[in-house]
Design a protein that fits this description.
alpha+beta; Mannose-Binding Protein A, Chain A; 2 domains; four-stranded antiparallel sheet; three-stranded antiparallel sheet; 6 helices; about 15% strand; elongated
Amino acid sequence: MKLFHRILTLTILLSSAGVLQTAHAGTCTPAQVEKLVDKGFSKEEIKDLCGTQKPAAPAEPARFTDNKDGTVTDNTTGLMWQKKDDGHSKSWGKASEYCKGLTLAGQKDWSLPSKEELETLLSEEAKKEGRSFFAIGETFPYWSSTPGKGNSHYALPSSLNNGIVSYYGAEGGTYARCARRHQ
């Protein structure tokens, strides 16, 4: 009888707090169990109420954060990215100058990202999640700060759309998406 009273009390408390959406004890969704854990209930109390359901693992943090200031932070790499390029193709030298002269979100330490930094946006996870933050989907390649192997007149741009990294002549025109280390 004591166990029944405890379960009934917890059910009433949790229902009034909006934690339980179901009316019967013994069945809790992982989200409900997580709310119980957040509210400080012990494992024994949760087991009494929900049966053997284990608390859900904490959710993974989002890969990207829209800073709402024209920038996006990659929470995996710590890089802050220019959310949208300026829409003008330029030579590698002009792209480098553009990033060095950029003031965005109150920051002035922007630069062309390295080939490796650009490649962090090419993973399946980054492409999937990044589509909602970046203007990704165009076929524009983006300059990197990395010179081509054996030829200082080449740089490596990356197309965020198809994931291909290739060499372009440094005097040719392509686009710049600037980055900086987020502090």
